[in-house]
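hey so u asked for the seq, here:
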Amino acid sequence: MAEALPLHDPEDPRLRDYTGLTDVQLRRRREPEEGLFIAEGEKVIRRALDAGYPMRSMLLTEKWLPVMRDVVEAADAPVHLVEPALAEQVTGYHVHRGALASMQRTPLPEVPEVLAGARRVAVFEDMVDHANLGAAFRNAAALGVDAVLLTPRCADPLYRRAVKVSMGAVFSVPYARLESWPADARLVRDAGFTLAALCLSERSITLDALVARQDPALALLFGSEGPGLTPGALAAADVHVRIPMDAGVDSLNVAATSAVVFYATRRPRT
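ran it, structure tokens below
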């Protein structure tokens, strides 16, 4: 059982996991290399723990100690109690949620493992914006997507911004990272999935037409904001799909697109 111990020195090595959280390039390199990620806020910390991620340490301000008391008492990792000004000095921003936890990453499953038994998966190609990725994961969790596949250049779902926007949904949807793209599209197809690319092209069918086909297993492919899907991804897809638009609008934000598509292709509840 842990107890919250006050810390006062921003240079204290016990706070190293929390230093420079606003330095995106630094954190994108450090966190995977050191096998950690940061969970921010009470709900996200609890969801990370419920998902089985081990805690390395926790950083709390006095205000949040009563709220997190049960987590503190159950923790087998150090719990650091700091003043808000010190938390801001260490992290680089105002920690208004007052609670951070450094969590230990666990090994990612292999692609065949996440595809086994799945009937509807999302493939995110080169989605480098952490907010979009977090929102798309939240949509996937809310609308019953079985699994997510990430291309090699896709952002880290466990980066703090992605975790925060997803409200911890990145912990509840199984995901794996493809090693070679678009060559690894064959792994998806060989597992029995129809690869449907969301795009505007001359061969695109409507989303309603896709749903009417009743493909037994669907892999829904989304590109990055702006450029969209790469030519290689479009060539690898079995079918191109568009969402019909009104009022002169040609497309939606990728996160909004994922919500519409996930809802339209959801399986009926039994």
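The first strand starts at residue 4 and ends at 6. Residues 4-104 form a domain with the 60s Ribosomal Protein L30; Chain: A; fold (CATH 3.30.1330.30).
lmk if thats what u needed
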